[in-house]
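User: Predict the structure for this protein chain, please.
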Amino acid sequence: MSVLDSKVPKGPLKTKWTDYKNHIDLVNPANKRNIDVIVVGTGLAGGSAAATLAELGYNVKTFCYQDSPRRAHSIAAQGGINAAKNYQGDGDSTYRLFYDTVKGGDYRSREANVYRLAEVSANIIDQCVAQGVPFARDYGGLLDNRSFGGVLVSRTFYAKGQTGQQLLLGAYSAMNRQIARGKITPFNRHEMLDVVKVNGKARGIIARDLVTGEIERHSAHAVVIASGGYGNVYFLSTNAMGSNATAAWKIHKKGAFFANPCYTQIHPTCIPRSGDYQSKLTLMSESLRNDGRIWVPKNIDDVMAIREGKKKPTDLSEDERDYYLERRYPAFGNLVPRDVASRAAKERCDAGYGVNATGEAVYLDFASAIERYGKEQAKIHNIENASKEKIYDLGKAIVEAKYGNLFQMYEKIVDQDPYKTPMMIYPAVHYTMGGVWVDYNLMTTVDGLYCIGEANFSDHGANRLGASALMQGLADGYFVLPYTIGDYLSHEIRTGKIATDTPEFDEAEKEVTDKINFFLNNKGSHSVDYYHKKLGKIMWDKCGMSRNAAGLKEAMVEIKELREDFYKNVSVPGTANELNAELEKAGRVADFLELGELFAKDALERAESCGGHFREESVEIGGEQEGEAKRNDADFAFVSAWEYKGEPSAAVLHKEQLEFNEIELKQRSYK
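Assistant: Here is the predicted structure, written as structure tokens:
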């Protein structure tokens, strides 16, 4: 085991990034025309990075498995993007965003990276406004803000409930400008299936044209992975069904360490699972917790009456409801961080208070907000003695303006009007904080191989605060990577074009082709989804919202057995030289079956509770924090970075010790 060098610059935290930029090596504009960069993934991180690198003058190739970069999963982000602009005058600052992020991540992130993220956050908003992103504005025309969980200020910029889509269109427009200039060559409907290393440096990728099946070689002086997270290892998640871990896992197997795989976020506000036939789950934005109040009935008789259809939730009076987040966490109420809110919902449902047929749902109620906004609007419009109906109509209009598309989506899926009856929600797998290990430069443990956005591990620790995913993706792509990669590429100006007719490319292409041929020639009896669902059940049951040592040991054994059966009995129809969705899935599930075992191994190794990683053996006993997650800083204040050694169970642990010089290490409290 080695101790990893994060390459954090020396000096005061507040000046590290500025001093770093002042002293790095640069590439002059004429030389940038001779340097090639590959970007895998064109969501917010990849799209912004590609556009910025091309604008600087580099030759960029982009790869995405979707038919257009506009289809990247970033489009699904709903609630907003954080930035420390203090537009509300409520005490926000760069330091407070930095502090909230480190605390929200349960003190398991790297201070220098998080401070840099907070520092550049304000620039992101200016960039996106310049691109025409239609952020919500207040009556005076200034950009509006709302609150998200884990903070006491309003710093989240938003565009109704479709912020990710609008930001992605901004990045896509910046990409299109460079595509038109010939500086970006897009390869849509292409999937990266391996990275190619030459003399220890990343020099290209092997990709498959998903329409024709052709295997292609692409070379570059540096490769950037921006392929998102691995939440679909659970099968059911809020991620798009195509979201996968293949690019990240392939580079892991070629030498890039994989960090903190057990840090997975369970989002508290999702539409509950309704049956075994589902292929994904639907997110309801965390922004809804600004105005929605979460509750379950106080009395078990009322729970049973609601499940049996004998009572409606609106039949219960205020004193018959348990607003359990407001009761347990009075300082933050419904805006506690996601891991805290998710575990609280699970606790109530496990105790028998779940309100739907499966017993896995709690209510998210907007009646109070509609009434509050209605009375406020009545005063604004000088309506005296407004009727209940009028107050409802006025209040509904405000709620609709803020969240209308989310309410519409809920009604289409559940067939209930959420304005009139509370939404039902339950936690679901959402975001992954773990990912490829990177240093301060966003470089992996392989020279010339970078990883940005959700695909890396760097900024969120053990729990991501809401609205920080979009912030990190755009910070990495627009404002961090273009500097750090330039320092590396300044030493590549004499390298010349990278050839693809070399033994290294031959070997990588052969590995990819052999794997494809294996799947197509394997005469098994089970579909790919059969194995994916089985893996998902193991992951949810034993590596889900809570974990224990016995369950994690069982998971490792069961996943390995499932993987062995997969290679013996999986059936993949069709051929290689065509559009073959089952072949695509086979490769992705094969990677999940390895990642899942490493996930369980990492969770077993980390015998503490922190953020989204809740070990049942590590809880607070007695006192005000009774039952809350108990962190162990003496033994686990480090990043777990795993080196691939042929089998997930044989992976070697490397540690990056975390130092906290600006923030005091202490147990989180949101009470």
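The longest strand covers residues 423-432.
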